[in-house]
Design a protein that fits this description.
Order of helices and strands: HHEHHEHEHEEEHEHEHEEHHHEEHEEEH
Helix content: 40-55%
Number of helices: 14
Number of strands: 15
CATH topology of the largest domain: Aspartate Aminotransferase, domain 2
Structural class: alpha/beta
CATH class of the largest domain: Alpha Beta
Shape: globular
Distance between the termini: 59 Å
Radius of gyration: 23 Å
Number of domains: 2
């Protein structure tokens, strides 16, 4: 009698040959498939999701502050009253009513926009992919903060572009470093397509770009003939004070603005948008339609009805309150349990803290020891295109309870201190 594994293996072989499936498909891949690499963060999820692990890795919004009964009513009313439209194909650019409401949301950050210039996307990640598809040729250069959002780096890499990182400090992107990067890249005869930036509570550093720097950076890019892609999922999640006006509020011609409801309502709805100059809209719509035909009418109208009928500004305030408590728990725990030689950012909003350890510590190599200690984080190298950041790491405070955050930071602090002690002992022996 065949074992369960043998039976499975035989059925797999039978299925493969009976369908005539081609063998060695990887030999038939397009050349660009070689640039598709798994995300270090996604690769952590399988481990970090185990209940005994305190995950300080993922940037999942905490939906405990979202009233599920209210959301159930929104969905129920939508299907009952407008199900025929909600469950049908929709406009490739996005539902007109939602685009108007998106303009109202952006007005909170000083943006005056026309709904005709808004493209609704399946999360802002799709918007970033569409922009990359339209603008990036192989070997083009994208300027990005050091460190930068791992999802953006993966997208640029997929389209065979090169990322040149620009220095940041406690106030975000350094204008003089941006000027120097532009000069260096162009001296090498390379083409810069755009600057990618997250000015508000940046992922992964959590820093906020001041208004004065925003103006300076826009001026530098305008003079250099480089447009700006402003990615802003965290702009309304300031804890102590509102963030400065969006960069798009200051320059409507040279800034492509990306927004999302993932952090302010729910990521599972997968609704984002791009606000673009009129000259770009048609190309973006064509590119989007070729990928998905149209964004989901159901999720768009769910959000539209939510924005129309619910106190969404109060809901965002509730999220901010929840995240602030968790931010405070993390910063207090870092002060208590991390070595004095470690440094970290002190975010005024958003989801993340960026930690810099002594350079002899390799946070990727340290990860298995952290997992044994039942805590997970994201190594710093995930946020660089060039392998830099080996002694840094990102901690996320958005999802765990304050108690779990304290537990996780304490465990991680112990791992780091032990790693430093082991390293010192090795050096003394050497």
């Amino acid at each position: 009698m065949a074992s369960v594994w043998e039976t499975y293996a035989m059925s797999d072989i039978t299925q493969r040959y009976s369908t005539g499936a081609p063998q060695n498909l990887e030999q038939r891949f397009a050349s660009r498939a070689a640039h598709m690499k798994p995300s270090e963060i996604r690769s952590l999820f399988a481990v970090a999701s185990r209940p005994e692990i305190v995950s300080l890795a993922g940037g999942m919004p905490n939906l405990s502050a979202l009233p599920m009964g209210m959301m159930a009513d929104v969905v129920n009313n939508l299907v009952r009253d407008n199900g025929q439209e909600a469950l049908q194909y929709g406009n490739g650019q996005g539902h007109p009513k939602l685009r108007e409401q998106i303009c109202e949301v952006m007005a909170l950050e000083g943006i005056r926009a026309n709904p005709d210039d808004v493209l609704v996307t399946t999360g802002s990640q799709q918007a970033l992919d569409l922009i990359s598809r339209i603008f990036l040729d192989p070997n083009d250069v994208v300027l990005a903060e050091a460190p930068s959002y791992v999802g953006a780096l993966g997208t640029f890499h997929q389209y065979e572009a090169s990322v040149v990182h620009v220095e940041t400090d406690e106030n975000g992107l350094v204008p003089s470093a941006l000027q120097e990067a532009i000069k260096t890249v162009r001296a090498a005869g390379r083409k810069i397509k755009f600057l990618y930036t997250i000015p508000n509570y940046q992922n992964p550093s959590g820093v906020l770009l001041p208004a004065s720097r925003r103006t300076e950076i826009l001026n530098i890019c305008r003079e250099a003939g480089i447009f700006v892609v402003e990615d802003n999922p965290y702009g309304l999640l300031g804890f102590d004070k509102p963030s400065p006006n969006a960069m798009r509020a200051e320059d409507s011609e040279n800034v492509i603005y990306l927004g999302s409801f993932s952090k302010t309502i729910a990521p599972g709805l997968r609704v984002g948008w791009a606000l673009v100059p009129p000259s770009l809209k048609e190309k973006l719509v064509i590119a989007s339609e070729s990928s998905i035909l149209c964004p989901s009418n159901f999720t768009q109208l769910t959000i539209s009805n939510y924005l129309a009928d619910q106190p969404w500004r109060d809901q965002i305030a509730s999220f901010c309150e929840l995240y602030k408590v968790r931010r405070d728990a993390m910063l207090e725990s870092l002060d208590e349990h991390f070595p004095a030689t470690a440094k970290w950012t002190k975010p005024g909003g958003g989801f993340y803290v960026w930690v810099t350890l002594p350079p002899e510590i390799d946070t990727t190599a340290m990860m298995p020891k952290a997992i044994v200690a039942k805590v997970a984080y994201v190594p710093g190298t995930a946020f660089y295109a060039d392998g830099f950041g080996s002694w840094s790491l990102r901690l996320s405070y958005c999802y765990p309870t304050p108690e779990r955050i304290r537990e996780g930071v304490k465990a991680l602090g112990g791992v780091i201190k032990q790693e430093m002690a082991n390293r010192k002992g090795f050096e003394l022996k050497g």
